[in-house]
Fold this protein.
Amino acid sequence: MNEALWLVMLLVNFGMILLFFRLFGKIGLFLWVPIACIVANIQVIKLVDLFGFSATLGNIVYASSFLVTDILSEIYGKKEAGKAVKAGFLSLLSMTLLMTLALKFVPATDDFAQSSLATIFAIMPRIAGASLMAYLISMFHDVWAYDFWRKQFPQDRMMWLRNNASTMVSQLMDSTVFTLVAFAGVYPSGVLWQIFWTTYLLKWAVAAADTPFLYLARHWYRKGIIE
């Protein structure tokens, strides 16, 4: 059941990115990055069983932001991709501050949401701190690496190489930093190790699967479908 849902979520994420791009162009890609950052950092709290292993949810949504920066790098250049990274960072920082403040309010007698919000957002500062560190390191590396590989292999037919070469290394960096900072001491070492490898392998699978969508986005742009 979880595996089927994982595939559905994969298609929904890529489909939404292309829809945002088709409807709003470059601005749509900028809009998706904050959505991915916020949703992923809520979903990551949930631990699920996938393909026989324990993994945190949110891997697909978060990994989809790498597709966005690769589209931006390919079509609009390194500078525009960097702007999207900064937008995602500020959106996650803003959510963390706002929800931390929200939890400080004393709830009314008839309130029913405080405990549920606390369950999700009380640990958010640690999760968000880990995510912010991992996000900045991995995403700026991805933007740099894509530009580097594009200069080495500028041919159109080599876009799959620069896409995967940049993303897969960046996601390894992301998984390492995030898992250690967010979950060290929270889960037993065996579970922590399992979370790290499953997180990375799932992100690796997302990176491999997003390549056709990158080609489609570039095709739309060159055909003048996207302004």
Notes: The beta strands are 47-50, 53-56. DSSP finds nine helices and two strands in the chain. Residues 72 and 144 are 12 Å apart (CA to CA). The mean pLDDT is 88.
